[in-house]
Amino acid sequence: MANTVEIKRSGATAKDDPNCFNRLHWALEPVAHARPGDYIVYETRDAFDDQFNWSTTPADVAACDLNRVHPMTGPVHIEGAERGDALAVTIVDIAPYDYGYTVIVPGFGFLRDVIPGPFIANWKLDRLCAVSDQIPGVRVPMCAFPGSIGVLPGKPEVAAALEREGALAAAGGFALMPEPARALPAALFAEGAPYAAEGLRTVAPRENGGNMDIKAMQVGSTVLFPVLVDGAGLWTGDIHFAQGDGEVCGTAVEMAARVTLKCEVIKGGGKNIVFPHVTGNGQLRTTEPGRFHAIVGMPVKKKGEVPPHLAYLDSPKVAALTNLSEDLTLAARDALLRMIDWISETRGYSREQAYAICAAAVDLRIGQLVDVPNIIVSAVIPLDIFVE
């Protein structure tokens, strides 16, 4: 008979919660032990660690502390899991809290150079939908999933991530390197602590999973992780009530939640898993819109413009072009900008509101990758989110 293992939430913030961490490393100690087949219940915190509430203003968003992102719950030691195995983690249930938010934080997000924010939409949540006074006339159905879920990286994976992300940062790329300020647990990662220079930030997903933001990972789906440390170290957090594929403004409909997981160990099964796999049965169908409107995007831009994802390359050469070859990110940006314009023009929302709507409900989809130079990304909005 399966047992239930509960990881409780305590304290006003993650700093006061012994079951939370916000940096990844092989040396993290488990906060609980579970056996394969047990139900593991995680009481999670929201992605920004309770910095926002019903009274939060845009000025508060601009002043938020990004070093507190993301507080994760765990890790949990799974008996019998050894490096080289695979861990099959099934999402059993996600119970939302009643408050959620979508924020545009200056300096972050896909269109950070065009719509910098700050902005906040507070959402009232139940098991059916989310509604917001800041975006009236929109009702977003519940489509809950873990924005972040994973196992602990091993010592080789931490070293590899630091090397490759460090090289990218040195070349001018957008990579968040270890930062001891507000790092948890402080005993491992704070200034002067043993692993202050090795605590991986949780924004980037890696071999161990993490901040993957895949909305198909809903209740009933199973995620396969490579076991990289003995005991696996299963954790989750950053739970999303709903999200469009792309999470374009940098946040989804963020919330705290009560998440129930169940896992099995596949002995030797990790040898062919480099990055996580996801299996499901109908989850993709549940995310398909009924009535929809789609806008096509191509890798085009204004002359002189250097989008953020290209800024660390040869900027004068990029600026001189209006059409780039096979640039998927630029095609997605083009589709998204056109969708924001369409929402604003046809529905009367501000560009900030439209951007937040896109983060919560608009899917970016690859149409084709072969018709050079203009590969296609479409932005697809479900029309039924608008309350007629």
Automatic annotation (TrEMBL):
Upper lineage: Bacteria, Pseudomonadati, Pseudomonadota, Alphaproteobacteria, Sphingomonadales
Name recorded for this polypeptide: Formamidase
Assigned EC number: 3.5.1.49
Oxidoreductase in keyword set: no
Top-level EC class as recorded in UniProt: hydrolase
A Pfam family assignment: FmdA_AmdA
Translocase keyword on record: no
PANTHER family xref list: FORMAMIDASE C869.04-RELATED
Key words, A-Z: Hydrolase
Gene Ontology molecular function terms on file: formamidase activity
